[in-house]
Amino acid sequence: MIPKVIDLAAPVAAQFNLEVVGAVFQTNQSPPVLRVDIRNCDADTGLEDCEKMSRALEAVLDEDDVFPEAYVLEISSPGLSTLLTCDRDFVSFRGFPVLVQTHQPYRGHHQWIGNLTGRDEKFVQLNQKGRPIKIPREEILQVQLHDSPE
Known about the structure:
alpha+beta; 150 residues; SH3 type barrels; 42% strand; 3-stranded mixed sheet; GMP Synthetase, Chain A, domain 3
């Protein structure tokens, strides 16, 4: 059920320049609650974003009859994520310690820890103890904030 909700919600979110970051259906409440978390990659996610998404997604879910019984739809922001996914994240957290994980070993390592210095079309750049590191974006599985550089 949740994968279908995400499949329906993603194009709705894209219309408003939003991203769906998760969904959960809480059946322990009466009526059950469908919570969809969204994020605006261009600005802080605000109440207006949640309202627009709620109205538009409600219409899509009702039309598709995903939930035949009564439910409550909640749209919210997940808050600060440790994963860096959009350009805004890479600008906001420049200079912060990050952990970069790669699909395959890159130069013998699956993980790289250092201070984020930038990201462009081809590379994510780190400073690792004064040494610049460039990791090709196609090699990267994920980039996340890290507690402290090694």
